[in-house]
Write a structure and sequence with these properties.
This protein is mainly α and 166 residues long. It is 61% helix and 0% strand.
Length: 166
């Protein structure tokens, strides 16, 4: 059942999150896959690591928003550990499929939620702490994650500079 009672500001934040997801998807579909194995800058993460990190961060929205368990626990280490500490090979096509699966499910779940749900506490804050800081709500988590995607998308642009220069 799609919720029609959601306020305009909440819709805009959800659209901001969706737009950032779409732009990241377009970026990872625009250039040949080997480009994303490169580092975004010297001594920085590779595009593949950042993509795995973003899949893991989006996947972690399920438990923090109270929507269920993470779907891909094998990627959780991309949140906790740097690329130099991870001995795990990721496949870009597998990441693309996981990115799509996570974000499609989240988008469908979000469509069923009303204003009250979005303004309620997220699962990483206690009821007592939420009473003191009501901004620690689910909507604020989504806004933070959308900005996080945007930040890393900005880093990923550096991978494509050499392609554009050619």
């Amino acid at each position: 059942m799609e919720n029609q009672a959601i306020s305009q500001p909440i819709k805009q934040i959800i659209q901001f999150w969706e737009s950032n997801n779409q732009q990241l998807t377009q970026l990872f579909n625009k250039y040949p896959d080997p480009i994303y194995a490169g580092k975004v800058a010297p001594s920085r993460s590779s595009g593949l690591y950042l993509f795995a990190h973003l899949v893991a961060v989006s996947d972690a929205l399920f438990p923090i928003l109270g929507l269920g368990e993470i779907k891909f626990p094998e990627l959780a280490r991309f949140i906790r550990e740097s690329e130099t500490n991870i001995n795990y090979q990721v496949d870009i096509n597998e990441l693309k499929a996981k990115w799509e699966a996570v974000n499609s499910k989240l988008t469908a779940d979000f469509a069923t939620k009303d204003n009250e749900w979005w303004l309620d506490r997220h699962m990483s804050v206690s009821a007592e702490d939420f009473a003191k800081e009501p901004s620690r709500n689910k909507l604020n988590v989504l806004l933070s994650r959308a900005s996080h995607i945007n930040y890393h998308r900005g880093q990923l642009v550096f991978l494509t500079e050499e392609v554009i220069a050619e």
